Amino acid sequence: MKAAIYRGIEKVTVEEMPIPECGDHDVILKNVRGSICGTDIGAFYNGGDDAGIFPGHTFGHEMSSVVYQKGRLVDDSIKIGMRVFPNPTLSKKSDCGMSMLEICDECGAFSEYVQIQDAKLDYNLFELPENVSFDEGAIIEPFSVAMHGINQVNVKASDRVLIFGAGMIGLCTLSACLAKGVKEIIVADINEWRLSVAEKMGAIPFNSAKGWKDGNVREFLWDLYGKKEQTLSGQPAVDVDVFIDTSGASMIIPSVLEMAKTHARLSIVALYHRSIAINPYLISCAEIDIKGSFAYTNDDIREVIQVLKDKSTPVADIITHHYTLDQINEAFAMTKNQSESLKILIDHVA
Prior knowledge:
By secondary structure, the protein is α/β, with parallel strands linked by helices. It has helices spanning 38-46, 100-105, 134-137, 140-151, 168-179, 192-201, 216-225, 252-259, 280-286, 298-310, 328-334, and strands at residues 2-8, 11-16, 27-35, 57-58, 62-70, 83-86, 113-116, 125-127, 160-164, 184-189, 204-207, 242-245, 265-268, 289-292, 319-324, 343-347.
């Protein structure tokens, strides 16, 4: 088979290697689509050690596939030719000596075939409904990250939500909120093109490059919803129920704490790799609920697959480009163009 091998910063090679062996409890999947994740982009341009992507290894963890081979002890519910989404975090046995990040990020979305150990339907393999395309199947993983982020703070249809970031996870978060029936969703970013995509998908866009430090986000929200809210200490606040940070910009969390109303909720989906300074007094005087969000659960995956089956959101609008496996370096080069590209797929099968 052909597989993309991570060789270091800005270097990926496509090489011939043996198809993985199929143990008695395993399945071999033939990948149809692979999807480039922000983690992959970070490894490509900055190095992958922190993300569990190491030189000389396969990588990629967002994919849609078909069952190519199954071990003799695999349950009959898994059929050869079945269209599936594999949960990459559970693709290897937990006692394999690798961390969850390494298991996930080395799964092999950019390989023609991958091995799923201890394969079980509705555990590490999920059947794709007939009306869910392989393209949509390849974005189940980031969509599940987003769904977990909003489920962590129990987003409801009646909530007013502000999402920081109009990248892939931000727009998946927008789609997850729309699937919950949320009507008022603001998306803040500095990229006008990505904000235009968010607006087409149903969000109220706000360009946060226009003076965030001067309080323009807060003033924008006051213009939208008035100045009626305040914290228990009397500090002026904005009438937003839920804040979701998918960006990781250092000013976001302090800004939220300075404007959040009493009992607002904050979900931190972005993975911060550095410390930031906050004032805990602001958390106390507004009694804000703050939840971290890391990856997803199988319940999140099931919810996302149902949303895709119901066609209740425009999440597929984030797919902008297709490349073949042999063009993977060109695909990574395109990720730098943030005014034309969002989700980029690798087509293993036309």
